[in-house]
Amino acid sequence: MAYLTDIEIAQANEMQPITEVAKSAGVDEKYLEQYGKYKAKIDYKLLDDSDRADGKLILVTAITPTPAGEGKTTTTIGLADGLKRIGKNVMVALREPSLGPVFGVKGGAAGGGYAQVVPMEDINLHFTGDFHAIGAANNLLAAMLDNHIHQGNKLGIDTRKITWKRCVDMNDRQLRFVVDGLGGKANGVPREDGFDITVASEIMAVFCLASSITDLKARLSRIVVAYTYDDKPVTAGDLNAVGAMAALLKDALKPNLVQTLEHTPAFVHGGPFANIAHGCNSVIATKMAMKLGDYAVTEAGFGADLGAEKFLDIKCRYAGLNPSAVVMVATVRALKMHGGLAKTELGNEDLGALEKGIPNLLRHVSNIVNVYKLPCVVAVNRFPTDTDAEIALVIEKCKTLGVNVVLSTVWADGGKGGEELAKEVVRLCEEKNDFSFSYDLDCTIEEKIEKIVKRVYGGEGVAFTPAAKKEIARLTALGYDKIPVCMAKTQYSFSDNPSLLGAPDGFTVTVRNVKVSAGAGFIVALTGEIMTMPGLPKVPAAERIDVDESGKISGLF
């Protein structure tokens, strides 16, 4: 049987005009800024003007990712459509895809099958230009920094201690390390430099955590770009760059409104990676979704040890959000991979491998229930090869934690396949919860990292390199020790070793260095070999993408 591809399904769908979608969401025309027929931005003033009570916030997260796939974004969209089908007023809030993964290995991030947001081609490509604005603001700051040095360096910036990089929203390993300012005195000051991918820029993190233009400007002003010869931090505020950067970002800060295949209103806004940043869509979009819907469904990147931890410990802390329920997405196939089965063998029933892999799911669920004290349901994306015995084993193991398992078929059936999950989520949202963070802000930087490693990852402890210890001491002396920690860690394991699958224990996480993202408001702890500029694979997805004379795009997935 031949299946339609995601893009073929999306292109066969008849979208509603965005004015109709906005009307169904209760958005007055005065807040609507159309970007063509099927996309719009919503003025953030709607938040100030509305006196409507906030809806319930639902987080969708997942087990540790594998090449078998989990379907977190697809589940998020299908759950929202399922809630709509059972008569609930619901909004979705998702991240925007980066062009790097779209043209690289991972592909787009607009859902899949019959649980997608559309127009998927626009969302996966330039969309409304938000990422371009973020890149422009980032690179304006870089240009003003180097110009300050070229024009006499009044602040006494040590060019060996510049921490700010340029960025581009593309996987381009050639740009990781460069030397620029060559060609003589008129062409700048020669120095080592480099590029990050745009989603790794601190501007992206600032953009997604800002609650208003005023807050955005305050955060931009605190960004540390370099240190002086006497080790004092130099900020974007010191360079008088904040006003111009905010001017570039003012329209981008307005959330983007689109729709699912079933016309459920959806915000798609902002897109930091969860393995190097905090992995959540913008605070403004989330709050707007809660203001417009009785239920707001959002997701956080990669496994729950990364996306959910940062959503709860960073985003919810700063934005004052209190989630009502958490959905943990898993597949039998992925759990069997965590149990040691090869990808080529996943179609065969193997209860032994599944039993070995299930502890990965159980640790994630236990973290949500016992560390963060939130109601949780496991959503199993069912594949045709999953046997009844395998499903029964997952249900049995999850019962030991007092958590229900619901089968989801949203990829094949859209909202209809998410109705049972929607009913369980509604039930959980009525439960009282005692939402807690995994650490307190008054802990030291080392203590916060240790609490995450021990309480969330299940590790034995943390090893800090001499470079990390030295930087922690410096940041503590500068007063940056009372803010959250953002772990930069592989997404493929609870540990910092991507080959340790399942639920490893007895491991030590090595922190090789730390850096401050003072504008975003967190300390980044660097572990393993996490890169802030990915490269393209041997056969990039870009080779399959094309457009015909009518403008119809093919090859996106």
Give a quick precis of the structure.
The protein is of the alpha/beta class and 557 residues long.
Keywords:
25 strands; 4-stranded mixed sheet; 557 residues; 12-stranded mixed sheet; alpha/beta; globular; 35% helix
What do you see in this structure?
The chain has 557 residues and is of the alpha/beta class. Helix content is 35%, strand content 20%. A hairpin with a 5-residue loop joins strand 1 (32-34) and strand 2 (40-42). It is globular and about 70 Å long.
Please give the number of β-strands: 25
Q: Radius of gyration over alpha carbons?
A: 23 Å
User: Could you describe the largest sheet, including whether it forms a barrel?
Assistant: 12 strands, mixed
Q: Indicate the structural class.
A: alpha/beta
Measured distance between first and last alpha carbons: 19 Å
Level of helix content? Answer: 25-40%
| Beta-strand fraction estimate | 15-25%
Question: What is the molecular shape?
Answer: globular
Uncertain segments of ≥5 residues (pLDDT<50)? Answer: none
User: What is the average of the pLDDT values?
Assistant: 94
Q: So how many helices? A: 19
